[in-house]
């Protein structure tokens, strides 16, 4: 059996989004080195430089709902294209700025455009796939992102040794190249400004219960809030996790790099085949299983002391990640009404982004204040609570028309 067969029927439009995302992420170099650039090249203090990332994060939270609403008005393809073009422009402008507050202002506006690609991509993929295609499609999109991220920051490290200006130049060039590629392909395919659902134009059950305000949709809120705990746990990898490996286990920083490489390699090699194999699993079964594996993997981190043990736990939470996040995107696409999908995707991006912003701070605070056993034991408990909540979402009908909602409301 071909483990990649789930990709066979995907429309060209989905492949274009994945390819453009890959091009964009290959050049993603400025954000990972922004604090270093502001301290080394501009002479700002570490605290002032660090505030730039907070400002970027706030811009990303604001961007989600705005970009989502625009997707409903002008089409996800147009929003995606505008996001890339504007991002490239601000990346060209940034290295010429000197004033601290002007830099913060431009970083904020940059993030508004840069982070607009998330709800746009999710809306577009949902519109151009049938329910059965969505797990492989979102896995393909994540594969493109991870492939790009495995190249961009690493190459950026070498370029930074020469000059930080190279980071801005390459990042801007690849972003603009991605937008040019997308525009050319979408113009050829005739989808600019178009809203099309591959499954047909008929109104779904989600449309029948449509509200223009996702925060008033209890079914949507249940699903979104059920995802928050596992997102909090997973994003310990950006703060508490490397601190624990280096400071508590006395491993080398390069060891964390190897764990990150292992995680990326597993995603590249196995995420699409795994989700193709699980394509017939009910959303709630896959989500609960994946969230539990994430929780167990991070929970077991506190029980091992060697690099081999850490690598083994990485395999566990990586498999959980590969199941949970593509399935969550597919489930969200089935949940959302076609004519208001952008607003829902944008709101979900905001809720998820809030958890992403809080998680690293919360984890490091627990690690330093209460210790590693509390952190990793708590990660297991919190992640398991997400698995339990996700178990109680109702499945859409086989055709993907029924909206997800808590099973207890049935």
Structural account:
By secondary structure, the chain is mostly helical. It folds into 2 domains: 1-201, MFS general substrate transporter like domains (Growth Hormone, Chain: A, Up-down Bundle); 212-410, MFS general substrate transporter like domains (Growth Hormone, Chain: A). It is built from 16 helices and no strands. Helix 7 (134-162) runs antiparallel to helix 12 (253-277) and helix 11 runs parallel beside helix 15 (341-369). The two termini are 38 Å apart. The model is unreliable at 197-206 and 397-410 (pLDDT under 50).
Briefly summarize what is shown.
The protein has 410 residues and is mainly α.
Blueprint (SSEs and pairs):
Blueprint: H1 12-26, H2 34-40, H3 46-74, H4 76-93, H5 100-114, H6 117-127, H7 134-162, H8 164-189, H9 205-208, H10 218-234, H11 240-248, H12 253-277, H13 283-300, H14 307-335, H15 341-369, H16 372-391
Helix pairs in contact: 1-7, 1-8, 2-3, 3-4, 3-5, 3-6, 3-15, 4-5, 4-6, 4-8, 6-14, 6-15, 7-8, 7-12, 7-14, 10-14, 10-15, 10-16, 11-15, 12-14, 13-14, 13-16, 15-16
Which features does this protein show?
about 400 residues, mainly alpha, Growth Hormone, Chain: A, single chain, about 0% strand
